[in-house]
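Quick one:
INPUT:
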């Protein structure tokens, strides 16, 4: 049984009561992020309304692309067989984007639903955006209910994770359950899969962090946090390894930079909070975090950086972002690597020397390429491939001059006066 949901909407509470009492209504709209809960309660409704073995006659499914008022009326008119009721499930049909004539027909249809039918519109791949001004919305409100299945509160989710592990004859403590949620996300559908993998892998009754790290598939935010956490611990090799793995898996550099940039801004805000003697609760509120766990991890990481480093990190990430988006032919992977080197407090001369050394590592491949070109009567001189240190030195100087925070804000549309006002408020 899923955990209780705090702050239940009236519709959600009523749905649970109706299922328990066997008084399920005729019309519902199911939507929201938490597909696990949606499918759970949909299953409960099926069990109440459709006798086992008679699904072919009493359970009708319509995909949105095939749905219109005429088709829907046909499914509704199909009388139940050896059952008091039927269910009609409509997946991903956007009621409020239907043509005007269809909306009128649907409004009339909802007003005259027979008692034997339970009609459920399920928004899975599309977002539910009702238009309260329409007659259709009024008919939905009068004849049925829109039930939103939201992400669970952290405490309830931790309890649910622990219960799921107990069902697999394993125990997990609350702190480790919070780590699993941080690592894999707080949607129950994703967590149930990870719990199954970990339960199969764990050789002892009590699940350990090593068990989780061995088989769990972390979400991108958590992986990028591992990279910043490694930098905080002074473990640049691990940070570089994490970045290399992400690039090898084909994650787009622009996406990685977006996630990394957001985490660096969060880290900066956590450092500023510490400077003002504010704790993780302030950070969680500032970034609208659903639980205290990621805010506490950010705050712990921020303690290992000074304010100047955090300011530098945000600035360099902004430079890399602007360069990646505005410079034609910019190498996203190289920009990410350069950013990581700067975050690791590697000076520019080291970066330049590393760039120059890359030429020697590539020489075997360059020679093979030259040979292939010669076979088709083409020839490129060796200097075309050389990594001249002066080239990188000039490039870095150009970036440092052109892609400043002021330049970044200007490109975003702020005037000089607005930038000065912003600076006066922040500094």
């Amino acid at each position: 049984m899923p955990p209780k949901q705090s702050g239940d909407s009236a519709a959600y509470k009523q749905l649970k009561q109706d299922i328990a009492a066997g008084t399920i209504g005729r019309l519902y709209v199911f939507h929201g992020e938490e597909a696990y809960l949606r499918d759970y309660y949909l299953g409960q409704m099926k069990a109440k309304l459709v006798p086992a073995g008679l699904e072919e006659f009493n359970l009708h499914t319509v995909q949105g692309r095939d749905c219109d008022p005429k088709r829907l009326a046909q499914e509704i008119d199909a009388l139940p067989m050896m059952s008091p009721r039927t269910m009609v499930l409509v997946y991903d049909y956007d009621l409020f984007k239907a043509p005007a004539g269809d909306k009128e027909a649907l409004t009339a249809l909802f007003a005259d639903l027979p008692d034997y039918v339970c009609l459920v519109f399920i928004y899975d791949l599309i977002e539910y955006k009702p238009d309260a001004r329409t007659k259709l919305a009024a008919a939905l409100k009068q004849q049925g209910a829109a039930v939103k299945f939201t992400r669970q509160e952290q405490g309830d989710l931790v309890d649910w994770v622990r219960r799921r592990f107990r069902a697999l004859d394993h125990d997990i403590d609350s702190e480790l359950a919070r780590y699993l949620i941080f690592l894999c996300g707080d949607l129950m559908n994703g967590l149930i899969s990870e719990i199954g993998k970990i339960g199969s892998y764990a050789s002892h009754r009590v699940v350990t962090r090593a068990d989780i790290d061995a088989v769990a598939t972390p979400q991108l935010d958590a992986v990028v946090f591992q990279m910043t956490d490694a930098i905080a611990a002074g473990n640049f090799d691990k940070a570089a390894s994490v970045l290399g793995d992400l690039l090898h898996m084909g994650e787009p550099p622009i996406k990685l930079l977006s996630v990394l940039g957001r985490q660096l801004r969060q880290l900066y805000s956590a450092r500023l909070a510490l400077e003002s003697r504010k704790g993780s609760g302030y950070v969680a509120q500032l970034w609208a975090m659903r639980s205290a766990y990621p805010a506490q991890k950010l705050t712990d990481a921020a303690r290992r950086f000074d304010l100047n480093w955090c300011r530098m990190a945000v600035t360099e990430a902004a430079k890399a972002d602007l360069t990646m988006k505005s410079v034609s032919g910019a190498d996203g992977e190289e920009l990410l690597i350069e950013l990581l080197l700067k975050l690791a407090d590697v000076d520019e001369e080291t970066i330049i020397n590393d760039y120059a050394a890359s030429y020697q590592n590539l020489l075997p491949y360059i020679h093979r390429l030259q040979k292939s070109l010669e076979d088709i009567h083409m020839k490129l001189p060796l200097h075309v491939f050389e990594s001249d240190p002066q080239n990188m030195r000039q490039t870095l100087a150009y970036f440092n001059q052109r892609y400043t925070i002021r330049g970044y804000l200007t490109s975003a549309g702020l005037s000089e006066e607005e930038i000065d006002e912003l600076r006066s408020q922040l500094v």
